[in-house]
């Protein structure tokens, strides 16, 4: 609960119409995609960096925590107000400020929805590649704060790779610019990349300068089915070794295929044990040549089926297999824990085998799919939470999944972040000295621990 | 001067044969490419991270500064021991630890020379694109510490874009790992990118994990001459707008052309006012098509000459124009200040015009060339330092060059870093709040200001 005096002060900053304190309003900002729930004391909707700065200065004076939030679509509880205090929503800062078609950069506010930005620049012949699954509703500010990835990361990189500069309100309320609008720049420390993926713990992003690319000429989609996971994994290395870096190299394991086939009957051959959905983009002639090369490269690796789309309609048809994964998972069990481990890409079969053992040991169905090109596997632990003891069992299985990834030189998360859900596990991955260094940075920028406390580190 | 007791302690750490205290030995480590000179009290050559850690712990106890140094080829005085203390040379850590051809990563020690690394991975069919001009002697540790660039940055990015993880000795002596060997990873703050370009002020790099690419199939070099700088600048935007991102887009202004032509007589037509040396790489068929497309795109922009190399020998011939720039500059004046401003690429003609005015105002020849694709221009202020007042005049002109770049949304440095030479100017570019934030990070990691003090910020 916040003091009435503080609520009054917040009203003075953002206007009475931009603050909510009623339970029914607070509920809307109490959850995210993790299904965890924490009720804030108030929700504020500031209009600009100045108002955000004033809120943070007040928070430092009065000692209440502030939890920044975009669309609340995160998979790690990063936007949840675990410690009470206020949720600060950035969705009113939702303008695309400019798109510079000559220098291929854009400046936006954090509340712009990812897909809307992509469509706006595409109209100008430009390309913003990062494509998190949430792109229809997630905001660019959240994408930057979490360093969102997506299928196209294997060729183009993640959100961070497109961020050239930021305007940020620091936890103390100071407003700074980081980076800039030049492709190179080595003056001072790289605060831009430090803030990307800092999960709203080091600053609230109020402007983003993105680098853009020319929109690719054409794309070519291929659905390829292998008789083993090893074959699919070898195909990934062989394609890249063959000097082709596909736009996407989406992987689905046998359990995933079975889910999709059971529900949608797409005609996946029964001997298919793993799928790679491959897409190349670029010059129209080159991609046709690459499609042929890819076929020749992967043919000896236990290829069961190879379908190449002739046009966009056929491409959409092939993507359907991937898109139907999520809707069909619920047939397995009503609840899922969606983790997103990463291993060096050659270790994908090893980690899948370790996960199969975990599955057997815990007797919980686990379905794996994801981005094979960068070794980023979405591990879906399917449970029925209403059964007694299931949640605890699932958490133990999750810990073992993380340990499996780490044992192969991997990481617990490639896209979702640590937030609340992985904070208890962070010591599995980071050494005490690494954590101490990160906490020293946090302490330096947020001496009163006002901004998004309780996230990332177990405080 | 260091206490004999401290020298003794250092000998115990690195071995008596790996420390130098005699003036003639110290002299070798007193300068870099800037021609500034500062004599250290001692030079140590540790063998590994543990020894470096012990040296830093001793430095904290005894309160002497430590200046890390690779090959000493920097252009900003970053490795110079301005405040006395010791120089710590990392060149004994010079092993390529492994090249993983399946996952396209390599792990190296910081003392490996850039070109030797490139050649080693090329033998395995792999590609490490960053190509600073110093690559024949600069070390990878220095490249990371300064975030070195080079002509190929326009397509491939700078050193930082290839660093996936580090082992670092922090200023306190703690040894930590940052990042890892996966292409994605969002667990904790991005200390890797924070350390890249931190100019040896936040840690001493002892291992680097690099991302590699398949070596490109083929390349095609084109020498293109324009009748105006505006034509050349428009060509850059038009080529990229035409969906072609060349590997290099090297620019030379009229003064540069005159220098080269005067000395080497390469047959550059007199109406030529600006050169773009363009290279594309990739698929053999595609690059031929792209060369034709480039020709068609730039033809209406005042193209005076277009020469496309038919093979590697002809390509070398065309690159000669660019390679002869440095040797021919000394004909203008014996001394040069080599700055490396960046502006958004469409602003290159504007900044060249502003520099022409500065040249006239100060009556100092200024020769501009560099990487037009990313707007990174090497501004060479040619002086004769032996003439009275010249140095002061040059410094005033340099300040105006920086101001010109900043007025166009640019930065003072795209590759060389701040070091000592730009520290007095950093407040032109960064706000007091930005500097305070960076200093807070430095203070958090280096509470006793032991590591490379006096660099980057005016302390």
UniProtKB/TrEMBL annotation, chains A, B:
Pfam family, one: FAD_binding_4
Keyword Flavoprotein: yes
Domain FAD-binding PCMH-type stretches: 36-215
Alphabetical list of InterPro entries matching this protein: FAD-bd_oxidored_4_C, FAD-bd_PCMH, FAD-bd_PCMH-like_sf, FAD-bd_PCMH_sub1, FAD-bd_PCMH_sub2, FAD-linked_Oxase-like_C, FAD-linked_OxidoTrans_Type4, Oxid_FAD_bind_N
Keywords attached to this entry: FAD, Flavoprotein, Oxidoreductase
Classification via SUPFAM superfamilies: FAD-binding/transporter-associated domain-like, FAD-linked oxidases, C-terminal domain
The protein's required cofactors: FAD
Key word Zinc-finger present: no
PANTHER family per the UniProt record, alphabetical: D-LACTATE DEHYDROGENASE (PTHR42934:SF3), GLYCOLATE OXIDASE SUBUNIT GLCD (PTHR42934)
Protein's recorded name: FAD-binding protein
């Amino acid at each position: 609960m916040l003091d009435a005096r503080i609520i009054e002060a917040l009203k003075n900053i953002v206007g009475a119409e931009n603050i909510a304190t009623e339970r029914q309003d607070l509920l809307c900002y109490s959850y995210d995609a993790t299904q965890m729930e924490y009720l804030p004391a108030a929700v504020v909707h500031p209009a600009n960096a100045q108002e955000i700065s004033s809120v943070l200065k007040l928070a430092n004076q009065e000692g209440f925590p502030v939890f920044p939030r975009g669309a609340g679509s995160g998979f790690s509880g990063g936007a949840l107000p675990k410690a009470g205090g206020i949720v600060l929503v950035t969705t009113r800062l939702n303008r695309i400020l400019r798109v510079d078609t000559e220098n291929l950069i854009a400046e936006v506010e954090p509340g712009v929805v990812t897909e809307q930005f992509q469509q706006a620049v595409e109209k100008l012949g430009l390309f913003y590649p990062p494509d998190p699954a949430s792109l229809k509703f997630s905001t660019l500010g959240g994408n930057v704060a979490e360093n969102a990835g997506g299928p196209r990361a294997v060729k183009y990189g993640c959100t961070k790779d497109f961020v050239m500069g930021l305007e940020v309100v620091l936890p103390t309320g100071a407003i700074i610019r980081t980076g800039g609008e030049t492709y190179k720049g080595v003056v001072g420390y790289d605060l831009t990349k430090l803030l990307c993926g800092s999960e709203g713990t080091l600053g609230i992003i109020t402007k983003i300068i993105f680098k853009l690319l020319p929109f690719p000429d054409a794309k070519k989609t291929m659905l390829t089915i292998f008789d083993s996971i090893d074959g699919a994994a070898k195909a990934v290395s062989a394609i890249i070794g063959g000097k082709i870096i596909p736009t996407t190299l989406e992987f689905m394991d046998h359990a995933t295929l079975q889910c999709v086939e059971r529900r949608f009957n797409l005609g996946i051959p029964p001997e298919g044990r793993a799928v790679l959905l491959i897409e190349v983009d670029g010059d129209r002639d080159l991609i046709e040549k690459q499609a042929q090369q890819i076929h020749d490269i992967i043919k000896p690796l236990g290829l069961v089926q190879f379908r190449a789309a002739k046009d966009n309609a056929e491409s959409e048809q092939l993507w359907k297999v991937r898109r139907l994964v999520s809707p069909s998972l619920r047939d397995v069990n009503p609840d899922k824990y969606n983790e997103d481990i990463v291993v060096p890409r050659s270790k994908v079969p090893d980690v899948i085998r370790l996960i199969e053992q975990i599955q057997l040991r815990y007797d919980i169905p686990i379905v794996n799919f994801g981005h094979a090109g960068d070794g980023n596997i979405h591990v879906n632990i399917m449970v029925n939470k209403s059964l007694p003891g299931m949640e605890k069992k699932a958490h133990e299985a999750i810990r073992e999944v993380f340990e499996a990834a780490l044992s192969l030189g991997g990481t617990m998360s490639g896209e979702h972040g640590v937030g609340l859900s992985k904070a208890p596990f962070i010591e599995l991955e980071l050494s005490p000295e690494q954590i101490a260094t990160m906490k020293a940075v946090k302490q330096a920028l947020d001496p009163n621990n006002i901004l998004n406390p309780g996230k990332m580190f177990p405080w």
